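User: For a benchmark we're assembling, each entry needs the component sequences followed by a predicted structure for the full assembly. Here are entry 17's components. Please fill in the structure.
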Amino acid sequence: MRSRAWKKGLLAISFLITLSLDSAEWSGYTAAETRVFERSPLSDEQKGGVSAALILEPEFYADWKEGDRAFEFIPYFRFDTHDDRRNIIDLRELSYLFVNGDWEVRFGVSKVFWGVAESQHLVDVINQTDLVANPDGEDKLGQQMIQVVRVTDVGDFSLFLLPGFRERTFPGSEGRLRSSRWVDTDRLLYESSAEEGHIDGAIRWFNIIGDFDVGLHYFRGTRRDPLFVPSFDVDGNSIFRPYYEQMNQVGLDLQYTNEGWLFKFEGIARNTSSEEYSAMVGGFEYTLYGIGGSAIDAGVLLEGHFDSRGSNAFNPLNRDLFFGTRLTWNDNVDTALVAGGFVDLDNGSVFARVELERRIGSQHKIEFEVQKLTNIVSRDPFFDLRRDSYAQLSLSQYW
Amino acid sequence: MKTNTSKLLAFKFAALLAATSGVAEMTPEETGLKIAIESDKRDTGFGDTIVEMEMVLTNRHGESSNRKMKLQTLEGVGDGDKTLITFDEPRDVKGTAFLSYTHKVDADDQWLYLPALKRVKRIASSNKSGPFVGSEFAYEDMTSQEVEKYTYKYVGDADLDGMNCFQIERYPVDPKSGYTRQVGWIDKEYYRVIKIDFYDRKNSLLKTLSFSGYQQYLDKYWRADRAKMVNHQTGKSTELLWKNYKFSNGYTDRDFDQRSLRNAR
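Assistant: Structure for entry 17:
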């Protein structure tokens, strides 16, 4: 009797909530990905052949008070045929947004993007990189946070409280696109005794001043990119243990926009227990609109990377040049191509990527991606990937 | 003596002409500008709007695809309007948003929000003549039409769709515009734009835009519920359908800033 009353009550409440909501809807996509490698794997542990993955990322969004209150839920699922460390279940988003005039609060698990550069997201420090979702490092894991934003006439001020740390995902021993010593994420090390419970924090100021978009930040907490401690696993194989240090970081991101030109700069200065260094990426994107009288826009990108640690940097982008092109067809199926490459100015190694995508029908999208490494010398951090150039095709359905 | 008389006559005639032209009509350029100013004035004070927009893109074979979006506008005071367009369909671009601050004289400021990366990107706005999301509408057709962006010439009167209209030619001030000129028909009663012919950089007829289904809101402001842009050179067309126009939403600059772009749905 009582449980029936509870059920009725719950139903009534959900009904009332739905009524007062401005909108509530499910959306998202499912994707099937296949990857073909140019050459067989470097080590016997790695599985060769064509690999495939299935991805599911549904999204639930509800808002009320004309968007001043919003709830968002995005789980992420990935299943891989070749590497069980590439099976992922993540919470990309589970957050509540509260907007009141010039104040905003977002809490839960969310994603925040900082930065302006295309070839390296140097200042984008809040969310952890999901290297397994895509080796290009553009996918991110959800991050627990309480974000408070105050909008003023002199810019937006954000304060972040990050109660908890997410470790980076790495391919397993059977996976490709990994270093010769694979990174064993089961045997991680933390500098802080609080480990993944460490509370990190950040503050950021952002403002638009005429043609300039400027951001300045300070971050204090667990460094998202791990250092690697060589070790051995239970079978005696050489592995790396990821080691997460604490750090202090200040950073600047700046874009100047004028006519068809976008000038970009990102720089960070970092201080950790083991090192003190700075790094920057800067360059431009120039777009030629409607080339040859067609509707196609062609963008030329050039970005230089510099790391003060020089060849000691584990970051492969220590003295590199990125050159790229972006072609946008401006058609009704949103055909787009991005092609680019990194050239290491110290050793001449080349790392190139091409991504092509377009919509098929009204609900599907096809994406084709090629990653090729050539001229890789033994002292280059990309040396272990020299046999892992690949081509990938993925088909997604959106709903 | 004869020459003196004819000179005197010529002088008197010229003086007479000078006297009467002060009382006569304005030049076609002045008339055109006056009509444009009046048309703009009739719409001034609308404040803000939100409307659902559906775009039907049809190619020359008659095959069509759809886009659905939400368009929010904040009327500019002393400058151009602010626009926030949030895309809903097709589903792979759902959540993408476009923010534009139109300026009367300078280049517009534009940003794009990419939901997969949660990234706000400032883009160059010099691409006025490029197609807006693959349609037959160019960016310069979509952003707020400010009087200062053109010079005008009144061409005559014409009847269109049973309405008595002014026919005006207007010339974009910005050399980056994709058009040499546009010919517009504005109805005399309410100063609403009924039709525009667009002439490309070679001065050939490129497109024709026709508005229909005008409704009046707040007893003053007219908004069409349909517009069709036909590209005569490619045979493609784009139809815009507006639904659920809402005025007086109480929008401020705060609804058209970086935060609202990031939170847009």
